[in-house]
Design a protein that fits this description.
mainly beta, 8-stranded antiparallel β-barrel, 5-stranded antiparallel beta sheet, about 50% strand, about 0% helix, globular
Length: about 190
């Protein structure tokens, strides 16, 4: 079952060569068709506070759990879900992602609906600089993402975690957010 407009080709696309998005991919409309793409793009940044002893912003060090998704003004998509993903940063430059308890991400754009489900775990190296985060998972990471159409049928094959390059914002001891592109981001709280 496709979800395009009559007279338009139903095209589903997952960006497989894209870097890992620990939270969600974004929905883009192209000729009325819902397309899942994924590389974090330009977005809000915060002044990073790297320590000389740390390769990452010290604000990020700790265990964070996603509490929800935000959509910037002007974005053509609505989103909900995405809670329960756990990301842990160490000052030594490691990042671990655990999707065991992450709720599916529900996306709607122009009346078209899709669901993305996350599973598995990922551990690797992370660096930050100037409000940008770069993550490379180690071999053996199992985190993957699967897209489903409005009736619950899988679209394409699951995308395996390949890394992340995106902007982030962090408020010390309170919250951080990862830009997922297309005006969408996930918010995390300590814990």
């Amino acid at each position: 079952m496709g979800f395009g407009r009559p007279g338009c080709a139903n095209v589903y696309s997952k960006t497989v060569t894209c870097h890992h998005q620990p939270v969600l991919r974004l929905i883009v409309l192209a000729l009325g068709t819902l397309i899942l793409v994924a590389c974090g793009g330009p977005g809000p940044t915060a002044a990073a506070s790297p320590s000389r002893a740390s390769v990452i912003d010290t604000c990020l060090v700790g265990r964070w759990t996603s509490t929800g998704v935000v959509v910037r003004n002007g974005a053509t998509v609505t989103a909900s879900g995405g809670t329960g993903q756990v990301i842990t940063f160490s000052s030594a430059g490691t990042m671990a992602v655990d999707d065991t308890h992450m709720q599916p991400l529900m996306l709607t754009s122009n009346g078209q609906h899709a669901t993305e489900k996350f599973s598995g775990t990922s551990t690797g190296t992370v660096t930050t600089r100037g409000g940008r985060l770069s993550y490379k998972p180690a071999a053996g990471s199992t985190e993957s993402f699967s897209l489903f159409d409005p009736v619950g049928s899988p679209v394409g094959t699951p995308s395996v975690d390949t890394g992340l390059e995106t902007s982030y914002m962090c408020t010390p001891g309170t919250s951080f957010g990862l830009n997922e592109g297309g005006g969408i981001g996930l918010i995390y709280a300590l814990g």
